[in-house]
UniProtKB/TrEMBL annotation:
SUPFAM superfamilies: Toll/Interleukin receptor TIR domain (SSF52200). Residues 157-288 form the TIR domain. It comes from the Bacteria. This is TIR domain-containing protein. SMART domains: TIR.
Length: 295
């Protein structure tokens, strides 16, 4: 089976991601690209392509059981990369992040930097790969280094858990953070981030952490939590993420019956008056590993 026959549709997969994924569009724009102007270029490429020799020549019954086919056929190889990415992130589902990483990994496995001189367009002969390389056509609107894309993806959901709490409840938060960290979960707990927080605009940074960089937010609800300025900032950022993604992102841990703005009484919660911290940690571990979450 020739390389051309083994690798159908990778640029089509990418085209769908570019067209339908706001996250990928945002990353490209951040590094000077323009997805809106790039899409017509890719449309034109597909319209002009010769499809006369685009059929499959393998026995599809062996596609997923034969190790050789899994490594040489596009759809199975991309699926494998997506599963690997989800496993590394301890995610139960394959989401947008995993699909983007799978496309990048697939491209660089088949067209590493030292082989991109094979492109007919000499403008793609570079010491690095770009989104334009993945698209398979030179396009100035997609001239974004893959390393920059990977860097952005690593920053998304950087933490398994972000803990939001009032200063008076710090000891509870610290005990949970320590137990979770001992189990190798990545936890955002203010005391662990002193060097990172030093000199930063805390309003912007904390808003970004609680709205973008954690898989789940443990909200330690108490009368102290309700009246603090910084917990309000964290709460609003967490609620924005939960609303935008329609996800079970906020995990309330109640210390009392205080009402929190925007936190509906119908949301399931754990009451620390009825559970030990060890029990709470066990539930958190299960939630992160197996809980439903939309990426």
């Amino acid at each position: 089976m020739s390389r051309k026959q083994c690798l159908p549709f990778s640029d089509e997969f990418f085209f769908v991601l570019l067209k339908e994924t706001p996250l990928l569009q945002q990353i490209i724009k951040k590094y000077g690209g323009d997805p809106d102007l790039a899409l017509p270029v890719l449309y034109k490429k597909f319209e002009e392509r010769d499809e006369s020799n685009s059929g499959f020549d393998y026995d599809s019954s062996e596609l997923y059981s034969n190790e050789h086919f899994r490594k040489t056929v596009t759809r199975s190889r991309i699926l494998d990369f997506a599963i690997e990415s989800a496993t590394k992130r301890r995610s139960k589902e394959i989401g947008v992040i995993e699909l983007i990483e799978a496309i990048l990994n697939y491209h660089e496995e088949n067209w590493p930097v030292w082989e991109n001189g094979n492109y007919f367009d000499e403008r793609l002969h570079t010491p690095f790969n770009t989104i334009s390389h993945v698209a398979g056509v030179y396009c100035e609107y997609l001239w974004v280094n893959l390393e920059d894309v990977r860097k952005e993806l690593k920053e998304i959901e950087k933490y398994d858990l972000a803990i939001s709490f009032a200063g008076e409840d710090r000891e509870i938060a610290r005990n949970i953070a320590e137990l979770m960290s001992q189990q190798e979960f990545k936890v955002f707990f203010h005391e662990y981030e002193n060097a990172e927080l030093w000199g930063k605009d805390l309003y912007s940074h904390l808003s970004e952490v609680y709205s973008k960089k954690a898989k789940f937010c443990l909200m330690i609800v108490s009368k102290n939590y309700a009246c603090k300025q910084w917990t309000n900032i964290e709460r609003k950022a967490a609620q924005a993420k939960a609303f935008q993604e329609n996800s079970e992102y906020i995990l309330p841990l109640r210390l009392d019956d205080t009402e929190i703005p925007g936190l509906l009484p119908t949301i399931g919660y754990i009451d620390l008056r009825q559970h030990t911290i060890t029990e709470v940690v066990e539930l958190l571990k299960k939630k992160i590993r197996f809980g439903q979450h939309i990426a």
